[in-house]
Amino acid sequence: MKKLVLIFTLVASYSAWAQGDINAGKLKAATCVACHGNDGNAVIAQYPKLAGQHADYLTKQLVDYKLAVTSGGAQGRSNAVMAGMTAALSVTDMKDLGAYFSSLPISANTTPEAVIAIAEPLYRFGDPEREIAGCISCHGPRGNGTSLAGFPKISGQNAEYTALQLQEFRAGTRNNDLNSMMRSIAAKLTDNEINALSAYVGGLH
To answer: What Cα–Cα distance (Å) separates residue 83 from each residue in 47, 54, 80, 87, 97?
Structure first.
């Protein structure tokens, strides 16, 4: 029953974002190119690929970056660069950007064989002894996430960026995850596990 309530809460939260305008988003995305690439596929590994990500998820992240500024860091997602980038954006701008980047194809990525032994069991089954849920339960067998529930697509993502996010969740410096789900899981992961999982999900298809 508790699980059903959580799912309905997630759906209600993310269904609030109406569909943006792809063409308008394309025009507004000019300032995003330096970090995220011409086609939304960041070539600098510390930055995320935005291409193919769920539009609602992208919109929420932009809203959260701006919220962190207006709340003095008490809410939202703190990031010095993105704080400046979102300062002048309206919610409509954010929706348009989300729609545009979501419409683009994400570039291919691979999973190094060396990480499979560590990452695959964690991704699929978690670690019950340490109360770690399998990543598959939210992000799906192919890492595509769930748009309505707000779980992002992680397949194809830059491994370095994914690792940085898991480290931030573990440290508590990123705290815009619903019900602290990611912080709870990341807190129990070792550096080796974070690096393995981050490389592993990049090649999920």
So the answer is: 15, 21, 5, 6, 16
